[in-house]
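Researcher: Let's try something more involved. This one mixes different molecule types, so please make sure each is placed in the same coordinate frame as the others.
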Amino acid sequence: MPYAEYQRLTQKAADFNNAAAVLSWDQETYMPPKGFALRGRQLATLASAAHEILTSDRYAELLQVLSKDKSLPEDARINVLRSAEDFEKAHKLSPQFVEALSLQTTVCFEAWMQARETGDFALYEAPLQKMIDLKREQAALYGFENHPYDALLDDYEKGAAVALLDPVFIDLKAALTPIFRKIMAAPQVADAVFSGNFEKEKQLRFTENILRQMGYDFAAGRQDYSEHPFSISFGPEDARITTRADENNLAYMLWSSVHEGGHALYEQGLPPAQYGMPLGAACSLSIHESQSRLWENCVGRGRAFWQFFYPQLQSIFPENLDPYTPNDFFRAANRVAPSFIRTEADELTYHFHVLIRYEIEKDIFSGKLQAKDLPDAWNAAYQKYLGITPPDAKPGVLQDVHWAHGSFGYFPTYSLGSLYAAQFYEQALKDIPGLEAQFAEGNFAALLRWLRENIHQYGRRLTSEELCRRATGSGLSSNAFIRYLENKMALVYPAAFGNS
Amino acid sequence: MPYAEYQRLTQKAADFNNAAAVLSWDQETYMPPKGFALRGRQLATLASAAHEILTSDRYAELLQVLSKDKSLPEDARINVLRSAEDFEKAHKLSPQFVEALSLQTTVCFEAWMQARETGDFALYEAPLQKMIDLKREQAALYGFENHPYDALLDDYEKGAAVALLDPVFIDLKAALTPIFRKIMAAPQVADAVFSGNFEKEKQLRFTENILRQMGYDFAAGRQDYSEHPFSISFGPEDARITTRADENNLAYMLWSSVHEGGHALYEQGLPPAQYGMPLGAACSLSIHESQSRLWENCVGRGRAFWQFFYPQLQSIFPENLDPYTPNDFFRAANRVAPSFIRTEADELTYHFHVLIRYEIEKDIFSGKLQAKDLPDAWNAAYQKYLGITPPDAKPGVLQDVHWAHGSFGYFPTYSLGSLYAAQFYEQALKDIPGLEAQFAEGNFAALLRWLRENIHQYGRRLTSEELCRRATGSGLSSNAFIRYLENKMALVYPAAFGNS
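Model: All components are placed in one shared frame. Result:
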């Protein structure tokens, strides 16, 4: 039974990858500092064990035989198809290269953590340069037609390339700029509601309550603290999130939790019977991101959401919140202003943060920038697009973990995620009458059902584009996002949009 | 370079085993309940990956070549020797068998957790019987001369066998019985000092303080809660412990932490340069246990220890502890009384708990007992040796995790650990003048140095017996333990020993 053997090998590789994910989760939540060195080699061993299986001659042989087998049921056929696509890409990297990359990831992550603590980019520069060199090597191993960066982009979003993304970012910039100008010219929204003294533990309990209400299953996941919030899954029955809290700012944890919760709901919604197989995996990073953004922005920063949750939040922190109404809170949650930190940016300026990283990454891989040039390039870009310059590297070039992880080419998927999120949300509003009225009653079940049916259940059956077409009737476009943003901004900044 | 290749393979197997250890740690501390099913297969994959390497033809070949290589330096020679011994044992199990055993461990552990929660042994019976059948198969695969149990005992203590252990337990029973009788006839020591209301978080902080003072490096480890306290190591730079707390009884967490801390100090003291190699691993389970027991009993239940720590503890829980003196506390900490739970037993009756498990395990593997018979056999043995019968299975046959883990043959090492601990401690007292006076000042550095030099640094260089001879001048014997126990009991029960 070649299919059974193919499945056994694929799932075995998934076991190694999921074990590595547990080690990574531990590394970023509970691991004591001296654990780094050996954790690095343990992760490298697991990564190379998975890679060895998925690039083995036997696996290649099975894929070849199965690709020609017309008698396979459809599910099996799609699993084989996706695995063959992955194989083609993965077998371009040697086990030695994969191990070196994994080792460097640990070294680089540790350096980033130390640099971030002190704000001293110099601690990070050499490991980051080595990481860039490795990724450049990876791009060469993958091969590319137009731009080395294309090879890396494709890793995170199949088919993505500079030639395709440049127009998307140009369009987005063109649409967002006039909205941004109008808002900047209008009276600013107050966001003092988020400032004060909010006990961490109470914040955590409140976000757990939100997550539960959203449908996140705590018997198949958990929420912990980490330096940089993330979601990670070891299978659909153990999909975890992390968050970070600031006692003086309520906003950090609130939207981190809802955002990561959106990711984790996707993982919990993947079919368990397809564990480790392409049909048991998420469609793509951009679709993954669409789930987190739909929950964070379309739902979690919506008026209806806070009609339900604000009174609860008020009763937890009465001294801070009694002076404010749900509408004050809603408007503050959607305040637009240039800022340094991507993960704390509003829905509009967020895309400038992504654009900056996208352009820097392009320049790194076209050879224009080295690690040592990044702090200056970073600051110049922030000045150019957002009119601000970070005071030092901590809220500047050191803010993201991605480069430490070697994840060059990842950032653009965040913007694609926003576009898909708006498209899905627009469709869900059409398909489910009174959806936001349900939110106002704390009921998110219909939305989650819609996402399960239209997105989650498919795993990697469809491409991002196919999935979007099937769910909404049209492919990727920024129109829904712009419509959504204009509607919301008219509520947040009525003066700017002439509805005051 | 065959040695370099041998080392690479050995350390790669260690990576898989240490990764599995991280997954196990997570499973028993933070994993959400639905995570069990997939965690089981992930652990099985890791176990079989390690096993595959260590039983591979290439590994066999390397060991054969290296065993004959007279030019190897001594360290390398010993690593090869120990690996060859392990190989001989491990290659008797097929990868399929190892995977089946690992899978069953997860199933059985989960069933044990559920049974323990409800006290219903029936939930555990079938998985346990399947585990017993697998262990019986394992004994047959290992082979044995006299008793199937010998094959399993040897897994935990090289060379241990019924013919060797029966006399040890008979001697121990003979020596302990009269001491026990004298104590039972004397006025009982009060232990009300442990009862009251002790906030968990404060207990945890206090035990962390003790651990730090003992020399445990929190930058290379951590302490968490778990159902059953354990220590686990992923390398000398990440050696963790768990503990459990009872708000109404101070004793649970105190001695769990010191005990597991003793284990972890051993792991932290192994040479990091020998990571994953026999010289980087603990000598044996009994020597491991000697370290936990030396710290828990000889040190942590000693008078000098509490001269230092009792005033601190008193200042944390003044309402509860103000009425008591350090000597009250010391005596209560060494109170002898029959009880149901092994891990809470005093130093004397503890060995009856072990004896009971030893005899039951012998009977399981001689075919006299099945899983279904265990609750009755258990209760009968407790009545016979300790004069008490557990009210139900929870404080009875369900109390230990060992059988759920398939660790039959493990329990006897606990008693051997006590005997070695007493021998080492007697020697350390001779070698370090004023040792206990140092304890009374909170200074444990000289003791830890003695243990590092005489025990930890050796890894698996010596057998338990050789290590004991080198450190103390004589081999395993119960004499030191009996001397130690009589001395202490004379202080705890002066009336019984004529020194009142």
